[in-house]
Task: structure prediction
Amino acid sequence: MEKNIAVIKGDGIGPEIVTEAMKVLDAVAKKYNHKFNYTEILMGGCSIDAYGVPLSDEALKIAKESDSVLLGAIGGNTTTSPWYKLEPSLRPEAGLLKIRKELGLFANLRPAYLYDELKGACPLKEELTEGGFDMMIMRELTGGLYFGERSTEKEGDQMVAHDSMSYSEVEIRRIAKRGFDIAMKRNKKVTSVDKANVLDTSRLWRKVVEEVAKEYPEVTLEHMLVDNCAMQLVRDPKQFDVILTENMFGDILSDEASMVTGSIGMLSSASLREDSFGMYEPSHGSAPDIAGQNIANPIATILSAAMMLRYSFDLDEEAKAVEEAIEKVLKEGYRTTDIMSEGKTLVGTREMGDLIVSHL
Ligand code: NAI
Ligand code: MG
Result:
């Protein structure tokens, strides 16, 4: 199989961690006889330095014409970097918002997986996480409250602000289908999270999700109110497989779920649409405090590359091989600083990448 991947290394630790993910992809290509062609493009602060804009039209064109995008992270130190003296539309983050919008990525996937080897970092009581947990939060990314009409105006003698939330059947159906497709590749359970006891958008959400569920008789569907879900995530995280939810609920719940795993350097993510195209990136930022020191954990980015193999290229066996290689390296006791604990062996960014490659 031959695929064209647009690579955005970005700022801060971005270049270091993406280099390791590319090493792993190359090892997969060699072992399984595929060909991955990379085209590097600039986005974020490095693009501002080179072209004066966080994402150029040429860079966007290359991303659009590729089969998928691998992204490190963008942004610098938000108090000291000159990038943050620019107007908002010219700052690094504007590149990220623009590329997501232009590529039409409406589904954001964030796995929360507790590695047996790292359970010491999990803030929950041990009996709650015995045997680990493995869930996937699927968040709608382009609708809802964050994209509704908003205003702030004077009413009488005080200011009043409005944000409006709307969802169409089309918007709900396409993310629900994606969620059920992904559940079919996993443990065949979908928990749809809403606030249907209060919100009209949630009642429509529930109705459309139930219609989509009829096309997937093998998948178990349950509905959960968002406040209850927030509790259940810390009460019994093992009950979840795929959590399917709208934009704002997903924003909050995905951060909650990821912190239950305890390790920011291990959290991958994918942003998808109807076809096989996707953008893959770690959940963390550009970590300017540790950039250029060969200490950043590359695993979140390598796991994101594994998601690319699975969700964009349909290479499930290859994705599993990468995930198992990571698991083996952790089992052997190798750790970057962010996941270091007593009795383990400290390694740098490059060494971690090499170890994972050696297990492939
Ligand atoms: P951050 O995620 O970059 O860092 C938070 C803390 O976690 C820092 O102490 C950092 O050293 C550590 N950390 C993050 N990733 C790590 C890794 N792979 N290995 C070891 N330690 C790691 O968040 P922060 O500091 O709030 O933001 C820094 C910059 O990143 C800002 O400019 C922000 O706007 C940007 N950012 C970019 C994102 C993206 O490109 N998608 C997402 C989040 C933030
Ligand atoms: Mg968030």
